[in-house]
Write a structure and sequence with these properties.
Radius of gyration of chain A: 25 Å
Distance between the termini of chain B: 68 Å
Shape of chain A: flat
Helix content of chain A: 25-40%
Oligomer: heterodimer
Low-confidence stretches of chain A: 25-35
Order of helices and strands of chain A: HHEEEHEHHEEHH
Number of helices of chain B: 12
Largest interface: A-B, 32 and 42 residues
Distance between the termini of chain A: 68 Å
Shape of chain B: elongated
Largest sheet of chain B: 11 strands, mixed
Helix content of chain B: 25-40%
Structural class of chain A: alpha+beta
Largest sheet of chain A: 6 strands, antiparallel
Strand order of the largest sheet of chain A: 4-3-2-1-5-6
Number of strands of chain B: 22
Low-confidence stretches of chain B: 7-31, 146-217, 228-261
């Protein structure tokens, strides 16, 4: 079969179109694939299995590409319920998501009374502007969250620098808890902070942890991030 | 330069003279109660040595003074006496040995305190005070509070009048270390007769707040001349013991100590130091740690922290917000041979709480303080909590119910068990939380359900349908 020049030209054009389409789709897929990789996400050392994370956290983080979660584990005798705050990346969008737990439904309080009041979790979500998300991530990195040693390691170092080689253990304190989640990789960090800067004066880590907490506590919804 | 020299010397002189004026407070202050020891009291040491060399009473000759004793000295009136606790001979009473200076030297007495059935340990002493010479011959007997017809048997001390108002004075401590400081204590002063009474201390918690006695009239055991300061006022040591022969400034031996907190410098020894500032927290802490409270747990607290000059409990305020805690207990720390355990309460977390809730938190922390001090921090928080919520639940609950009689024992247990519910960390606990099945297992010892505890807690803490408000 002999093709006319016109036909050859047509085949070339068609092929070129297909190739262009393939290349374009590759480009698009490639862009989408790199969306999370637009950010060079910090490396961290896994120390916990994803299956050990509570369902209320996983329900949200499973759908995200990356998350840094902060919550408070209350001290003994304290029955307060503290919110869970998550700084999450999905595609190229940073979000600040907060689960406010145990919110009493007022109607149920009036109609049913204690102990049958209905308690619900409320989830708040704020989509961050790019600059805000990047700034927050940068601060977490600057305060060394992703390379921070676990509490037992910090205490061990503290022991070594103390003359009595003992780190005071205070009873009944709660913990500040962080989860860094990237796919199935999870790092969990929990710390007690009371008096630690005084107990281990030459260590800067405790101050860094307090600064990280302050990002989640005091500057969570501020315009600076 | 030459012009500046006089100024320089003037400054130097002023500085030097200011140094010279640094005399120990004990030497310059009037009416001082001093907690001291033999190393600081050569007179007492000498007297004891002489006394023990010749004492016919085996108890006295074998007496070992290892710990603190009390000295009362008023250089103006010449009063000087020492009070030493004697080892317990009977559970029915306790005794002190007093060495008092009179014109012709020091005389020794034994004071025996026999509490009556109304006497509550830690409160002002009520009962019989018997005065003996050192050979244990009875020379005087009084009922406290005083009655005019108290038996008088010719001792050096006799009844002067019934009660006088005690006033706060500054006392000093030289015990163990060379620090001299003022600390508030209650001593006695008879405004009507202008007699400033001599204060000795009744050890073993026998406190007598309103008691005064007349000038010496005879009796007692002559010990020695001593080498202390000479009395400026007459001691009335002539042997005359007629009732009513009051000789001003010739002061009797009197026992007064409502406060049993003692200080060495700024350090409190034998103390429960309530440093709380929030009025409600301070009041509740005072209430639950009142030495007069009759509960086994409180007695334990008093025995460990309030009667032992080597172990102190300090309760202070502090922010525990960073760790979402309401209260916390430090490990026991030893400094200069004195052990201290500090409990911190966060006032912001307890601002709206009922007294019962605050009290339960204080007792929770006191439990840790006791274990930390007795075991020298050998037990973990978990170990302590397990015992607290099982074997010792009744101990704490009974103490709580003793402070708040309107609270049932069941409610008191529920309030203590709130701490157990707070330990629940679900199926994947973090930090030092416990897995739910373990919490349930511990809870099963108490025969309480979670919802029962929840309801009790909410009544006292959330809805305030039970409990005592602070205001």
């Amino acid at each position: 079969m002999k093709l006319s020049i016109h036909q050859v030209q047509h085949v070339i054009n068609h092929t070129s179109f297909v190739i262009k389409m393939i290349l374009m789709s590759q480009l698009i897929i490639g862009c989408r694939h790199n969306a999370t990789k637009n950010y060079i996400l910090p490396d961290f050392e896994t120390n916990k299995s994803i299956s050990e994370i509570s369902k209320s956290i996983r329900n949200i983080t499973d759908e995200k590409d990356f998350a840094v979660v902060y919550t408070i584990i209350p001290g003994d005798m304290n029955l307060e319920v503290y919110p869970i705050k998550m700084f999450c990346l999905k595609d190229s969008t940073w979000e600040k998501i907060e689960i406010r737990r145990g919110i009493i439904e007022l109607d149920s309080l009036y109609t049913q009374g204690d102990p049958d009041v209905v308690e619900k979790d409320i989830i708040l979500k704020k989509v961050c502007r790019k600059i805000e998300g990047e700034s927050f991530l940068k601060k977490l990195t600057t305060y060394n969250l992703f390379t921070m040693q676990e509490e037992f390691q910090l205490k061990k170092r503290c022991e070594e620098i103390r003359t009595d080689n003992k780190v005071p253990e205070y009873t009944d304190l709660g913990f500040s808890s962080f989860y860094i989640i990237h796919g199935s990789n999870v790092r969990n960090l929990t710390y007690q902070l009371y008096n630690r800067e005084e107990d281990c004066p030459s260590m800067t880590e405790w101050e860094d942890i307090e600064k990280i907490i302050s990002l989640y506590e005091d500057e969570w919804y501020s315009k600076n991030h | 330069m030459q012009k500046r020299l006089p100024v320089f010397f003037a400054i130097l002189f002023l500085w030097a003279s200011s140094c010279n004026e640094e005399t120990p407070v004990s030497k310059t202050s009037r009416e001082k109660i001093i907690v001291t020891d033999l190393d600081h009291e050569p007179i007492a040491k000498d007297l004891l040595s002489k006394l023990q060399g010749k004492a016919s009473n085996g108890r006295i000759s074998s007496l070992e003074i290892k710990d603190a004793f009390f000295k009362y000295e008023d250089p103006d009136s010449g009063v000087l006496n020492y009070t030493f606790p004697l080892p317990d001979k009977s559970p029915e009473y306790f005794e002190n040995m007093i060495l008092s200076k009179y014109d012709d030297g020091f005389y020794g007495f034994i004071y025996r305190y026999i509490p009556d059935e109304n006497y509550i340990k830690g409160e002002s002493f009520r009962g019989t005070l018997q005065q003996f010479d050192l050979e244990e011959n009875l020379i005087g007997e009084f009922t406290i509070p005083f009655e005019q017809d108290s038996i008088y048997a010719g001792g050096r001390t006799q009844l002067l009048n019934q009660c006088v108002q005690s006033i706060e004075q500054k006392c000093v401590t030289t015990y163990k270390v060379e620090t001299v400081t003022d600390y508030p204590c209650h001593c006695q002063y008879d405004r009507r007769t202008q007699l400033s009474s001599v204060c000795t201390f009744s050890f073993n918690m026998g406190m007598c707040d309103d008691m005064t006695t007349a000038p010496p009239g005879g009796g007692g055991t002559y010990v020695a001349m001593g080498s202390g300061p000479s009395p400026k006022a007459g001691g009335g040591g002539s042997g005359g013991n007629t009732t009513g022969t009051i000789k001003p400034k010739t002061n009797p031996v009197v026992i007064v100590v409502p406060e049993n907190d003692l200080y060495v410098g700024d350090k409190c020894v034998a103390c429960i130091e309530n440093l709380l500032k929030n009025p409600c927290l301070k009041m509740v802490a005072k209430k639950v740690l009142n030495p007069a409270l009759a509960s086994t747990f409180n007695n334990l607290i008093q025995d460990i922290f309030n009667k032992n000059d080597k172990v102190n409990l300090i309760i202070k305020e502090g922010s525990l917000t960073k760790d979402a805690a309401i209260g916390s207990t430090n490990p026991a720390a030893i400094e200069n041979g004195i052990m201290s355990v500090t409990v911190t309460l966060d006032p912001t977390k307890l601002a709206q709480s009922s007294q019962e809730r605050i009290a339960s938190v204080i007792y929770h922390e006191c439990f840790h303080a006791i274990v930390n001090s007795l075991s020298n921090n050998s037990y973990s928080g978990d170990e302590q909590h397990i015992v607290m919520f099982t074997n010792k639940l009744d101990l704490l609950a009974q103490a709580l119910a003793a402070v708040y009689p309107a609270m049932s024992l069941g409610d008191a247990k529920g309030m203590i068990l709130v701490g157990l519910i707070a330990k629940d960390g679900g199926m994947s606990p973090e930090g030092d939380k416990w897995p739910t099945p373990f919490v349930d297992k511990v809870l099963s010892y108490s025969h309480f359900t979670r919802s029962q505890i929840d309801i009790i807690f909410k009544r006292y803490e959330t809805f305030h349908t039970s409990g005592t408000a602070c205001d």
